[in-house]
Amino acid sequence: MKGPYGWLFDPNRCIECRACEAACKQWNGVPTGVNIRYRRVYTWEAGAWPAVSVVAISSACNHCENPLCARACPVKAITRRSDGLVLVNRDRCVGCGICYEFCPFGAPQYDPKTRRMEKCTMCADRIDQGLEPACSALCPTGALRWGPWDEIRGRGPAWIPGYPVPYATLPRIRFVTTPARP
Amino acid sequence: MALTRRSWLRMTGAAGLASVHSRLLAGFEDWFQPASSAPGEQVLITACGICDSACAIRATVQDGVVRFLEGLPGDFQGQGKLCGKGAAGAGFLYDPDRLKYPMKRTNPRKGPNEDPGFVRISWQEALDTIADRIRSYKSRHGAESLLFVTRPAPDLWVRFMRALGVVNRVDHRDECFQSDMVVQRYTTGGKSWGNDFENSRYILLFGFDMVTKTKLAYAHGVLAAKQRGARIVVFNPEFNTQARLADEWYPIRPGSDLAVALAMIHVIVNENLFNQEFVDQFTNFRQYEKEIRAHFAHYTPEWAEGLSDVPAEAIRRIAREFATQGPGIVPMHKKTLAANYMNATQLAHAVSILNILAGTVDRPGGRYFPRTIPIPGVDAVYPPPAYPRPEGRRVDGADKLPLVREVDSGSFSTLADGMLNKYPGMIKFAFFNMYTLLAFPLPAQMEEALRRVEFTVVMDTLPTDTALLADIVLPSVTYLEAADLVPREYWAKTPQVVVRQPVVPAMFETRSIGWVAIELGKRLAPEYFRTPTGEWISPAALLDEKVKRAGLGSSFAEFRSVGIHTRQQPFTPRTTFATPSGKCQIYVPEFAARGYDPLPVWKPKAEQPSPEHPYYYLTFIPAIHRRNSTQNNPILHEMMPTNAAIISRTLADRLGVREGQMVRIRSRVGAIELPAHITETLRPDCVMVAHGFGHRSRMLSLAGGQGVRDGDLIPSRAIEEFVAAGNFGGAACIMDAVVNIEPL
After folding, report:
1. Considering only alpha carbons, which residue of chain B is nearest residue A40?
2. B421 in a domain, yes or no?
3. Domains, chain A, ranges and CATH?
């Protein structure tokens, strides 16, 4: 399997339909009702009426090049696969939640039923079958795209206003900031 | 208890049980069989049924359990994708709250705090009881005593109602696009929801959040147009998602869209900027030129500015650009914000005129009529004996709006008034299919009206608030267990049909409304439910026949393995239009003949802010919910479990309200209490509440008791109000309330 992979997000194309979130829940069987969401869409308002601007962002684990979550884990339950996917080994995880504290994006989340941390796997099982992750596969407008990191890394900044500052984690996400014009 | 995929997998046992039932009832329900319920993985094509867009689905089924739903490449509606609702579709199928068996009420008292005491009965008993009731009420009180709150679909159900001579069938379209249907019939002569955004150069959007309503064909079209450099102008009191995508946004005063549209017509006519060739050839402009020019002469942009808060120079410039930098399009569909004030019929007419003047009706870049593959209905396949003439009074008063009756529509907003005040006691029997109390303005009043009905039947997938008032409830299949042929209508420049097929066996003892039509028909009007050779109509044979006659294949079984059929043909713009004159009608003589305005005139919305009720009350449907039918879906519920009073920062500061603080909103008909959500994206004179929340049914384990009903503040209406206001399209005025707000 090649890799690493990353996300490319274009806030100018996001219509907040949340197909990415729903597809993620459905494919990964993420429990509902306990506030675990591997991926979530949120909006961020700036400015004041009527000169207001709003940006919608779909956010999940960015499978960082420098995953502080993995470094912080006291039991080494978070590892990086050879293709760059940062994964939680639930057999090792003790549910202490330190990874969550170190993640700029709040990606790892606590499942009160299993008492373990869970997070986006970038649909590792789909990638292994040669499929793209469920979220980007369903995104109707192409706002959320996924692909080889080499093709994405030069496409825009790693941060836009409204998104958490990644500090030193080197997230594998880029934002399209040029308006959708020919 | 929340449902997870893990519990769905645990429910494999339940799915096995369901297939046992299906086998037992095979002769009973012969079309509800998936291609295979064998172990292993299979991929089936079907059509989404959450909204009418009906995007094509590629369903992965693992060991008889729906594993994943995604879009089908090649489908024109979803263009290979699904929205969040569609992606969460398995949650409807596996909702543990689903109605599973027919049930009857044992507690005769009906009310919000009464436990219906439902007990399971057989389909046989349910159908026999319903048929007896219908027979008895009809013979004693006439067909007018029967109320059907259902859509005019499917064809078998329509045949059943027509065979009974039903007078009172009503659905929700008055809250939606009914006024536009009425207007289109006489101005352009067609359906109103084909929008060729992708070829448009200038898109004017009044109200209705076209992109987040997630009719995906629209979202794709608007984004494609934007990509190609089309100009997008939005008039909306809220800086919503489509405003974000737009080049220009004007926070228009609620209810004044009509003024802006009239002023744009004024500019285009006055400066002769209309599409000369189209207007001369295909419209009645020249015939009524004098009337038209005189009529719009005083609707100046300066006049409109005073009503709408949109600057006159902006109106003038946008009108000029729209007319000359086209093709330009003004879509007009659905209820949100623009379409549903008392002046909505006039607005629909004005918007239709803008499209006609732009010369884009059924032209690239404009509103066009869907090109579909005609699917013959049951009446074409098995011609029925003559139907009885429906006789009796319309309980909703829609007979006072003859143009609404022409499009076989009615009025939700006046139904309670008719049942309680105009014709008390007339309705003895009510049948609801997939409509809840929340769909009505003033749900409490509708509940009161329904409690006085002697016998109520509710067919639904879930134990809704309406179901709790029923004497008999019938469990319905979801769209993932149903069979049908679904033509594409929201993107229909090239005809296309997609199959709808059961991707798993119908769960429990659920049935389709078409099957119920046949079973009740056998009992009540058998002559309408036999084939020419004297056998009972079978849904499976009917589907086979439809497939053959539509040229889709030799049988339904064959077509469902193919799943989708596209008929390549060039898009040939129409040169005659299905109006009485065969032309696009700007001036509508038929309106004049009925005493209505032949050209749209300015009328204010019904209710204006006053010291007592100083704020506009707006409701909206969030992107991830479809009306009031999706709130119990575990995935969608988690994304948005409840609603809030959305108010601007300015207003919150003035009222001294903090984020999350409870507020009471009061209109002249009711009050609701809910937490405030503060935003910078809404006009300070508005308060906005999401529709679809406030289900009371305790049998809805997720949605029940969550949020408040937006409709509690929306006045129901008397039909005379519509007649007096020139609202001859019968728009339900669900955006027309004014309110006050107080912090708690």
Report:
1. B639
2. no
3. 5-175 (3.30.70.20)
Residues whose CB is less than 8 angstroms from the CB of residue B136 and which lie 6 or more positions away in sequence, other chains included: none
Q: How far is A81 from chain B (nearest CA, A)?
A: 26
pLDDT score for B333? 66
Q: Does B713 touch chain A (CB under 8 A)?
A: no
Between CA B426 and CA B436, with CA B431 as vertex, the angle to 5 degrees is: 110
Say yes or no: B4 contacts chain A, CB-CB below 8 A: yes
Q: Touching check for A182 and chain B: CB below 8 Å?
A: yes
Looking at the structure, do residues B625 and B557 belong to the same domain, yes or no? no
Residue A155 token pair: 């496409």
Q: Would residue B434 count as lying in a domain?
A: no
Report yes or no: B442 and B714 within 8 Å, Cβ to Cβ: yes
- Is B12 an interface residue toward A (CB < 8 Å)? no
The 10s digit of each residue's pLDDT in B407-440 is: 999 999 999 999 999 999 999 999 999 999 999 9
Query: Are the beta carbons of A180 and B82 separated by less than 8 Å?
Result: no
Chain B residues within an 8 Å CB radius of A52: 239, 680-681
> What pLDDT, in 10s, does the model give residues A94-133?
999 999 999 999 999 999 999 999 999 999 999 999 999 9
Let me know if residue B334 belongs to a domain.
Answer: yes
Q: Which residues of B699-727 are buried (b: 16+ CB within 10 A; e: fewer)?
A: bbbbbbebbbbbbbbbbbbbbebbbebbb
Measure CB to CB from residue B226 to each of A21, A50, A180 and give the nearest one: A180
User: Global pTM?
Assistant: 0.93
pLDDT band at B670 (very low <50, low <70, confident <90, very high): very high
Domain residue limits at B658 = 615-743
Q: In this complex, is the C-beta atom of B287 within 8 Å of any C-beta atom belonging to chain A?
A: no
A107 touches chain B (CB under 8 A): no
Instruction: Report whether B564 contacts B553 (CB < 8 A).
Output: no
Contact B87 A22 (CB under 8 A): yes
| Domain contains B389 | no
Residues B577 and B632 in one domain: no
Percentage of the residues of chain A whose pLDDT score is greater than 90: 91
Cβ B378 vs Cβ B156: under 8 Å: yes
